């Protein structure tokens, strides 16, 4: 604890560029990519320049794009109806006719995995975004202001933390979506999102708060403050880019966890109901069949892993591009 | 799979006869002499309430209570056999209304006090008296004077307390002497003696009335072949042999530990690893592809169970009031495929209204239980088709999703109408919606007899106002025949009338039987193949170490 | 520091009251009549429903119910379940088991996650890096019941090197496999958070300085790098302890551990307010104390973080 190197060098002073550039650059996001190289760019413009050169970015972005197209237009990938089953072909193994085989109800697993992308990606990505935005914002505020603001926000987070997921979800979803009320797809999806976000934000909040706590004492923040920068400016221009990394890492993996959480809700009978398909539901449905027909688990789980992998890679690329410390 | 009602697992007539026929009893004559002591571990689940027969309606506590107590009559292990006398020495009646019950002298509770006529009468009066709030109280509603010990809460769920009932005891119960009592029923009921084997009718020692139900339920005192030793919540319940037992066979082993499991998968793996000697029902994951047969080699028992899974129609919904439509739906369900593919053969397709293992039941009397797409389509057309989406409801907190989806899919494929299955979060919500008559489509139900007689498959389910006739089905012919049957002088005459009533039920198709339950148990190589009692529980008295 | 600690401890009181009431309301809002499903496919006798409703004061309004619960609580009595068991006993018997399980899970995930994170952070984009990423993501994709079942069957039944189910003593060694299963879903987070942090700090001047000073690499990584990279990991671990304790129901079931997971799940489904509130309130207290500990750890790890 008395190591002298720790205190002063815990955080590398950031490359000066963003700080300086941030002060003088015009609105940064709209910069054409072919802007003159010596013109100072904003944070995002800089990041974009950096990203363009990374193969990792292009690979992960195209996989995600593929999944998005799959979610939006599943019929481009398969002409088979994912809900059409026939017990006569129950658990038939993968073959030329059905690449991924048939599930217990005799439905085409390939078609179901394709159609499952919509609910899974939609719910997981939006829930992650919501969690990160809300949790991140509250985390910054609480870490930056400290004092009673921190105490209040942190204690509220503790209470939400303490809520068992099952309890919160059952109450929210059954209160607003009475069983058998035949609510629309959009309404049920938004309710599922609402439950996941309201029960999930405290972790993002804690992570963001911790990075802000560690960063806000850094020399460059002090310097900016001394130069008379307002709180809003310090947060947006200095704190955010330097504290985003852990939250970004957390959130890309969170996409995977949310795909599973969505399935839990469906299984409790409060989430999306059949005929809506999702990867999580497909995975849970294999529960009793893993020993006899492992391929039923393999395909949706692999799709899930690939999708999450793409998000993690994209997150990695974006983080490296955004993070001044890695320049 | 957990059956949340004790009675649902009261699988009377579980085919131990089949077991004996299937494997032969040759292996009992082994060369080593049977050990008279020894201990085994069997699986169980944490009882929901204290171990009081009048309050226990679920399987976890129900099994323990059956080991600890012996009733007036007992159901033999063989399927369809008539009940035999246990604590009772005789049960006589002239008019099926007044029964004189004599009990054996000298049988004792585990605390040493004698089982007397009073032990039964006091126990029954306690259970029926509404301020005691016993879950099984309705089993006494046949007895004269039951209404007088009931009181109704004036403001239902409001804070006002219910007034005291008119009487403290039922007028139909009369102690004649220490070993004789008389039961007068409200109206003649020929099946009454059969009912007496149900656990609600067990006798209670004086200690129960002095200690109160809560304290007694933690350290129960019965009169059966096994004594209570200890109970560690969620961990285990220990029992030991009652060496003073005189009402029947004593056990051959000394100590029994009932290990309490949350999950059948855990118990199954313990069984395979040799930590458990008997598991009543192997988990669904082992039934898939009949894996348990290879896992356990010959150490399993596969018998049918006297319970049926049905789908009931809400008659209060106009769309389901047409009998042709209901028949069309029933004929559109491919039960054989569901049995083969979803249950890997562990459940059999249902083809009759009462489970065929029940005394008095006829097999194959459900004419709409076959899979007949042509007739189904024709009947649907005759009924004028079906408007909108047919949603089949189930409770999502037990494993019903797969077979309910298969049913919906079969209906959809065969009839070409929109159909799907939807889960309701919990059984409590599900039952509340059923009780409030708010179901918006056909819904799952399961029935297994409380006592082995076909009456139990008709009265509660298809008679107007029956205790489980939740869909409000009503046919005056069925009501009339049922009434004639219950007041018939002999059991055979009653069964003939019940059979007649069933033909009317069959025409109306008020529900659709889907499958008959089965039981797949596993045992360790430490014990010889055990017998199962009529409820599917292990018959502890039959257990022998190898 | 002392005042800060005192203030944080004082904050427990409003949070405690707020949480108990909040959860009480939520359980009250769970749909369904708690006694409608108690008698199987048969309507329960009115006498029984009236008796239970009266006994547990469910016919009173929610404020009265909450008031009487709090009154008993202040006298150290959590009340009883609908089955007549004392909730104090459940808490005393089940909590230590769940806490042990969660701690083992936390230790396992921290150990494996950190090791993987440090190794991959030092050498990014190598084979090991990709292997760790893909395998930890697979652990997220596989539901607990699959990992639990496979490990239980392989280690317990097939090879016989680990107990199949946990005995009533619940020793730490017995909890290793269940702990791994429970912790497996969080490993990816720890490994990635540690990796990122290490990679970032690796370029820090102080690391260069330390290396230039001639310090052995092991010491540079072990003392300087690790310590400065711990904040995000510690934060996540702190939040995860609570999540592990609250989310252990499946793992407890697979390995038959007598913990709070099953009690709280059962109580939620059956609307047993007193049980849910009692268990969850203690859980919230655990979070509060854990977060306090984490906040103090920040200051220890990074002296620039100070609490006045």
UniProtKB/TrEMBL annotation, chain A:
<feature type="transmembrane region" description="Helical">
    <location>
        <begin position="156"/>
        <end position="176"/>
    </location>
</feature>
<feature type="domain" description="ABC transmembrane type-1">
    <location>
        <begin position="117"/>
        <end position="315"/>
    </location>
</feature>
<feature type="transmembrane region" description="Helical">
    <location>
        <begin position="295"/>
        <end position="314"/>
    </location>
</feature>
<feature type="transmembrane region" description="Helical">
    <location>
        <begin position="188"/>
        <end position="208"/>
    </location>
</feature>
<keyword id="KW-0472">Membrane</keyword>
<comment type="similarity">
    <text>Belongs to the binding-protein-dependent transport system permease family.</text>
</comment>
<dbReference type="Pfam" id="PF12911">
    <property type="entry name" value="OppC_N"/>
</dbReference>
<keyword id="KW-0813">Transport</keyword>
<dbReference type="InterPro" id="IPR050366">
    <property type="entry name" value="BP-dependent_transpt_permease"/>
</dbReference>
<dbReference type="InterPro" id="IPR035906">
    <property type="entry name" value="MetI-like_sf"/>
</dbReference>
<keyword id="KW-1003">Cell membrane</keyword>
<dbReference type="Pfam" id="PF00528">
    <property type="entry name" value="BPD_transp_1"/>
</dbReference>
<feature type="transmembrane region" description="Helical">
    <location>
        <begin position="121"/>
        <end position="144"/>
    </location>
</feature>
<feature type="transmembrane region" description="Helical">
    <location>
        <begin position="56"/>
        <end position="77"/>
    </location>
</feature>
<dbReference type="InterPro" id="IPR025966">
    <property type="entry name" value="OppC_N"/>
</dbReference>
From TrEMBL, chain B:
<dbReference type="InterPro" id="IPR039424">
    <property type="entry name" value="SBP_5"/>
</dbReference>
<feature type="signal peptide">
    <location>
        <begin position="1"/>
        <end position="20"/>
    </location>
</feature>
<feature type="domain" description="Solute-binding protein family 5">
    <location>
        <begin position="83"/>
        <end position="468"/>
    </location>
</feature>
<dbReference type="InterPro" id="IPR030678">
    <property type="entry name" value="Peptide/Ni-bd"/>
</dbReference>
<feature type="region of interest" description="Disordered">
    <location>
        <begin position="150"/>
        <end position="169"/>
    </location>
</feature>
<keyword id="KW-0732">Signal</keyword>
<dbReference type="Pfam" id="PF00496">
    <property type="entry name" value="SBP_bac_5"/>
</dbReference>
<dbReference type="InterPro" id="IPR000914">
    <property type="entry name" value="SBP_5_dom"/>
</dbReference>
<protein>
    <submittedName>
        <fullName>ABC transporter substrate-binding protein</fullName>
    </submittedName>
</protein>
<feature type="compositionally biased region" description="Basic and acidic residues">
    <location>
        <begin position="157"/>
        <end position="169"/>
    </location>
</feature>
Automatic annotation (TrEMBL), chain C:
<feature type="domain" description="ABC transmembrane type-1">
    <location>
        <begin position="95"/>
        <end position="298"/>
    </location>
</feature>
<keyword id="KW-1003">Cell membrane</keyword>
<dbReference type="Pfam" id="PF19300">
    <property type="entry name" value="BPD_transp_1_N"/>
</dbReference>
<feature type="transmembrane region" description="Helical">
    <location>
        <begin position="175"/>
        <end position="194"/>
    </location>
</feature>
<keyword id="KW-1133">Transmembrane helix</keyword>
<comment type="similarity">
    <text>Belongs to the binding-protein-dependent transport system permease family.</text>
</comment>
<dbReference type="Pfam" id="PF00528">
    <property type="entry name" value="BPD_transp_1"/>
</dbReference>
<feature type="transmembrane region" description="Helical">
    <location>
        <begin position="101"/>
        <end position="119"/>
    </location>
</feature>
<feature type="transmembrane region" description="Helical">
    <location>
        <begin position="131"/>
        <end position="155"/>
    </location>
</feature>
<feature type="transmembrane region" description="Helical">
    <location>
        <begin position="276"/>
        <end position="301"/>
    </location>
</feature>
<keyword id="KW-0812">Transmembrane</keyword>
<feature type="transmembrane region" description="Helical">
    <location>
        <begin position="12"/>
        <end position="30"/>
    </location>
</feature>
<keyword id="KW-0813">Transport</keyword>
<dbReference type="InterPro" id="IPR000515">
    <property type="entry name" value="MetI-like"/>
</dbReference>
<protein>
    <submittedName>
        <fullName>ABC transporter permease subunit</fullName>
    </submittedName>
</protein>
